[in-house]
Design a protein that fits this description.
By secondary structure, the protein is an alpha+beta fold. The chain folds into 2 domains: 193 residues, no CATH class; 114 residues, no CATH class. 18% of the residues lie in helices and 33% in strands. Strands 1-10-11-12-13 form a 5-stranded antiparallel beta sheet. A 5-stranded mixed beta sheet has the order 2-16-4-3-15. The longest helix is centred in the first third of the chain and has 18 residues. It is globular. The protein starts with 11 loop residues before the first helix and ends with a strand.
Length: 337
Amino acid sequence: MLGTATVRYRTRAVATVMAFVLALAAPELAAGDAPSDWKREWPRTDFSRATVPLSEIRSVIPKDRIPAIDQPRFASLAAAASLGLGEHEPVISLALGNEARAYPLRILTWHEIVNDTIGGIPVAVTYCPLCNSAIVFDRRLEGRVLSFGTTGKLRHSDLVMYDRETESWWQQYLGEGLVGTLSGRKLTMLPMRVESIARFRQRFPDGKVLVPNDPAARDYGRNPYARYDSSAKPFLYDGPLPEGVPPLERVVVVDGSAWTFALLKKRGRIEHGDLVLTWETGQNSVLDTAIIKDGRDVGNVIVQRRGKDGALSDAVHDVSFAFAFRAFHPNGRIHHE
């Protein structure tokens, strides 16, 4: 979580220094006086309601320092290509009703949340770079439509969101209310894919692509977390690590179980009950090289369920790092061999 409205990280060295500063600052901000600081910054949040110990939540940067996108702009695939989007760059692809949209991770890395409406459904398209978790939520809950922003806080290195209607805090990885009036509630996750823009174009030649409202506001196309997914340990995380799997190994998560990308790459296709998981080459890592389109190939994963008629349809899932799965699914199994 390193973006600001005025600072553009143009080199790996600058990004590394900023990460080091945040790592040093975080324990102080999350110390014993933090709840008082939170109450001053969050006067509308009901801190008497919480589903997790407040000590698990780490303050990093101020509220909305990483700005959510509330008025998203979209362009044709041809126009998006002119902005320098690499053919194998990853996007979160979403198809609802008669609409299909791609949300490039080169943009979400800097904003983390897009509040949008597609196919008549209000959605929150979210991405946490530190956990590599891309999840789309239905913004409707109990008769109201929520809109989301970033708290500037982390739990288990994962983005803590807030809704602007009640200023309750939400865990991005699980879509669960943590603190406030809506604590204990759960958002509905929607099927999506994380795939290359080239694969999105093949499936939806008339689809639209999210483009920056202000191309100069961020260094879009540059990864401020260079080499992060090659690190030996996760950033701003001190919880238990998975056994037998590198903590920053990518895993695909479905219903509390996970499969490593390494296993999927080896087998190409895995069937588990009604689940069908497939892996194919052709997607850059967004968290590898400083220039995203130069990142190493981590492949595309498709997650589908087989219906009673044998037809396959996209299933709700998440692609994230193994350490995050271990943190949020402590009893879940990681299939790796």
